[in-house]
């Protein structure tokens, strides 16, 4: 993930505070809302990490064939990652 968990927590708190100050949301349980926003942000920001892990698993299964055909690991990584992002409808 490109951000630390602490920074994601800061973003969640700041976002909720901004939404409350702008009267876009009302809540009596601000910490609970912050926790839900934090979890949502964390889920979205870790999506690319999960896709990268899945790409590595796929390429490990085809490692011998790639070596035989002379395929570039880096190029194949990009292609498989693009396909998985399309499959999950993710914007990376």
Features:
92 residues, mainly alpha, 2 domains
Brief rundown of the structure:
The chain has 92 residues and is mostly helical.
Molecular structure report:
With 92 residues, the protein is mainly alpha-helical. It folds into 2 domains: 5-45, no CATH class; 47-87, no CATH class. Helix content is 76%, strand content 0%. The chain has helices spanning 5-21, 30-45, 47-61, 63-69, 73-87. The longest helix is centred in the N-terminal third of the chain and has 17 residues, at 5-21. The model has no long low-confidence stretch (mean pLDDT 95).
Q: How do the helices and strands line up, and which of them pair or pack?
A:
Elements: H1 5-21, H2 30-45, H3 47-61, H4 63-69, H5 73-87
Helix pairs in contact: 1-2, 3-5
Low-confidence stretches: none
The secondary structure category is: mainly alpha
Radius of gyration: 19 Å
Kindly, what is the distance between the CA atoms of the first and last residues, rounded to a whole number of angstroms?
12 Å
Shape, principal axes of CA atoms: rod-shaped
The overall pLDDT average reads 95
The biggest beta sheet reads: none
Domains, number: 2
Q: How much of the polypeptide forms β-strand, as a percent range?
A: under 5%
Task: Please trace the helix and strand order, writing H or E for each element.
Answer: HHHHH
Strand runs, count: 0
Fraction of residues in helices?
Answer: over 70%
Number of helices: 5
């Amino acid at each position: 993930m490109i951000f630390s968990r602490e920074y994601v927590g800061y973003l969640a708190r700041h976002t909720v505070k901004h939404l409350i100050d702008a009267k876009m949301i009302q809540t009596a349980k601000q910490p609970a809302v912050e926790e839900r926003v934090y979890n949502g942000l964390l889920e979205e920001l870790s999506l690319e990490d999960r896709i990268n892990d899945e790409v590595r698993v796929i390429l490990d299964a085809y490692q011998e064939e790639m070596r035989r055909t002379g395929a570039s690991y880096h190029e194949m990584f990009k292609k498989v990652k693009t396909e998985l992002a399309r499959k999950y409808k993710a914007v990376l």
